[in-house]
Amino acid sequence: MKIGDRIVYPMHGAGEVVGIEENEVGGVVSSYYVLSLSMGNLKLMLPVDKIEEIGLRDIIKKSQLHAVAEVLSGRAERMVGSWNKRFHATVDRMKTGDILEVAAVARNLSRQHKKRKISSGERRLMDLSRQILISELVYVLEKTPEEVINWVDNCIDKRLNEEEEIIQTED
Q1: Residue 10: phi, psi to the nearest 5?
Q2: In contact, 33 and 1? CB cutoff 8 Å
Q3: Phi-psi group of 170: left, alpha or beta (phi > 0 → left; psi -120 to 50 → alpha; rest → beta)
Q4: Of 12, 77, 108, 152, which sees the most CB atoms within 10 A?
């Protein structure tokens, strides 16, 4: 990893490596990557020797956008179980750092929220999953956050609109 690389930090989103610094913590000098996240003006220092454990990965290639769009416009998964079990299962999916898992979480919770209001905890997860997804797609699509939000919403709403049309024609 080098300065200028664009990477994804699971549960935080995408950013750019803007520096490498050495800091002393507890009498031990260690090297840290300085990561500037694309959303929220946040800078993080990540220990160089813990990168594998943290789960950092490169942003996806443009060729993978089709798979993201398919997940976003795909059929929502019905979430079952108590709120607590659903919450933990959703967090576990997001912790993987896999953009397709994050996209599925964003799709599922966004659609559920449009059909009926979701709990405040699920609302926070929806917002976080969307932020993580959008932060990466800003780099991949080379668009503004607003343009990426529109693209994501159009993908998510595509099937929702189709399902509503089917229901209306059946009446």
Answers
A1: -50, 140
A2: yes
A3: alpha
A4: 108
Express each pLDDT in 97-107 by its tens digit: 999 999 999 99
- Rg (the chain; Cα; Å): 18
* Phi and psi, residue 43, nearest 5°: -115, 135
Dihedrals φ, ψ of 165, to 5°? Answer: -65, -40
CB distance 44 to 35 below 8 Å? yes
For 157, the token pair is: 């709403």
Q: Are 47 and 31 in contact (CB under 8 A)?
A: yes
Distance CA 93, CA 107 (A): 13
CB 38 within 8 A of CB 139: yes
Whether the per-residue pLDDT at 165 is higher than 60: the answer is: no
Contact (CB, 8 A) for 43 and 26: no
| Integer Cα distance of 107 and 7 in angstroms | 23
What is the rounded average pLDDT for all residues in the chain? 87
On the question of pLDDT at 129 being above 70, the answer is yes
5 Cβ contact list (under 8 Å, min separation 6): 16, 17, 58
